[in-house]
Amino acid sequence: MTTAKGTGKGGSRRSAASGRRVRIATWNINSVRIRLEPLGRFVREWKPDILCLQETKVVDPDFPLDAVRSLGFAHHAVRGQKSYNGVAIFSRLPLASPAFEDWCDKGDCRHLSVELPGGVELHNFYVPAGGDIPDPDANPKFDHKLRFVDQMRDWFARRRDSRPRILLGDLNIAPLETDVWSHKQLLKVVSHTPVEVEKLGRMMEAHDWVDAVREVIPPEEKLYSWWSYRSPDWDMADKGRRLDHIWVTPGLKGAIRGAEVARAVRGFEMASDHAPVLVDLELPA
Amino acid sequence: MTTAKGTGKGGSRRSAASGRRVRIATWNINSVRIRLEPLGRFVREWKPDILCLQETKVVDPDFPLDAVRSLGFAHHAVRGQKSYNGVAIFSRLPLASPAFEDWCDKGDCRHLSVELPGGVELHNFYVPAGGDIPDPDANPKFDHKLRFVDQMRDWFARRRDSRPRILLGDLNIAPLETDVWSHKQLLKVVSHTPVEVEKLGRMMEAHDWVDAVREVIPPEEKLYSWWSYRSPDWDMADKGRRLDHIWVTPGLKGAIRGAEVARAVRGFEMASDHAPVLVDLELPA
DNA sequence: GGCCGATCCG
DNA sequence: CGGATCGGCC
């Protein structure tokens, strides 16, 4: 528990409102096959009801479905490719209407959406990292990233309606100054450059997205979800970035009951370089 | 303990003769860096005084010297290269005059010799495996193997003197019918072809070598030191081959006190595909 | 620093 | 099957 309104590691779930209390987690797992042990440990200890993964790095026929299913997820949707990217959604609640878009027409598996009970649309994203050089002319990966975010903005702008939606995943952008260990030193580092942050802001505005995690954990507070493998002593040095996000549409803002970055997971044996991010929502019944 | 005259896993060392009782082990460890745990376990349980390794697969500056030294070996000589081959000798007794030959002038690290107290010369070899096709014209690796053994024969033939010597290592040839799980099925399989077996025999004759292990374990008995990784259930199937050997010059024949293949080591976690081979010798004081 | 796949080698 | 290396990617 890191916040007053935290999600509570396996805590009680008393509900003050009328809906159904649901814990949603997003985690860039950096290869699901090699990470089954820490995944099991995370699920057993944090007990998410819905688990969204990125960078599964496995084609669908090779996905370790049984292992993940046996953690208590009766429902799932997966969408993977060889070597890179790959997204998946596991759920204790029924999932409907799995769908995806091929952003930038590259054939990448970077998006997967499902419908939750109560008509809530959930979108799981893995936004391109963008390479090293923050110049779209010199670096096609950065160009790809910017176009990807623009397309997301347009796509959701065209769907401004009253439908409750959740957008989450590894967006590979840390928007706030408190989302990085040093705003000044990262201004020219891909993930925190002004052009990326601005485009992410436009995307949020285009659909009135609410940053659910920052509704709970004040924007003044430092908060990270990723620490490089290259940093030895990542915990002490704490040179992190908040690249993983959970957003909700305005109608769900009042449903937020807690949020947390499961930082301890970054310290597990065989850890991913990302920590899971969680929110508790009181979903419409 | 597998034989009446076995070496005794950590047993007592009462000496009937005047010399110094020394336990010598040879093991193709198939990467020393990845095998430090089974190596430690083997050394703690079998307590060899001299440990000869092959296929260490590491250049000298990267050799995990401290880890192996801390198992009780105050003296050592190593000779490694990148990726392939590599030999090493560790010892509780002082080692003198490290030396080597570049057999077949390929720059391979396949040989290392030292002098033990009492003037005994110890030669640690990693003979080329020889590829798949047992035809020196069609397969340059097989040609290399045959020339390597020929050069060993000539080299030791030129040194027929009264000096006590030990030759050991992964010779990659199983000479006896009882050294393979099926003599008939392996006659055309590299490691047991007549041409290899004959060349190994000539090498033995050229220096009057005595097969120390077979002095203890009768040649009629099946005995293997290697089981392929590809065979699942290697222990049950037992499709092994005796590729690892310990030979001594005639003057040391009477010094042999025991011999053993540490087959259990092949069943360790993270096992090499070879098991260590050991002899106990009563070395001249 | 670490994961993936490809390639070489036993 | 399982070492080692290398280049791509993060």
Overview of the molecule:
The structure is a homodimer of 285-residue chains. The N terminus of chain A is likely disordered. Chain A is α+β, with helices and mostly antiparallel strands. Chain A is globular, with a radius of gyration of 17 Å. In chain A, the strands form three sheets. In chain A, strands 3-4-2-1-14-13 form a six-stranded mixed beta sheet. A six-stranded mixed beta sheet of chain A has the order 5-6-7-8-12-9. Chain A has a two-stranded antiparallel ribbon with strand order 10-11. Chain A is 20% helix and 25% strand. Chain A has a single domain, classed as Deoxyribonuclease I, Chain A, CATH 3.60.10. The first copy, chain A, has six helices and 14 strands. In chain A, β3 and β4 form a beta hairpin. The chains hardly touch. The structure holds a DNA duplex (10 and 10 nucleotides).
Q: Output the structural class of chain A.
A: alpha+beta
Cα-atom radius of gyration of chain A: 17 Å
What is the helix fraction of residues of chain A, given as a range? 10-25%
Order of helices and strands of chain A: EHEHEEEEEHEHEHEHEEEE
CATH superfamily of chain A: Endonuclease/exonuclease/phosphatase
Distance between the termini of chain A: 27 Å
SS strand fraction of chain A: 15-25%
Which fold name is given in CATH as the topology of chain A?
A: Deoxyribonuclease I, Chain A
Brief descriptors of the model:
DNA-binding; alpha+beta; homodimer; disordered N terminus; Deoxyribonuclease I, Chain A; six-stranded mixed β-sheet; 285 residues; globular; 6 helices
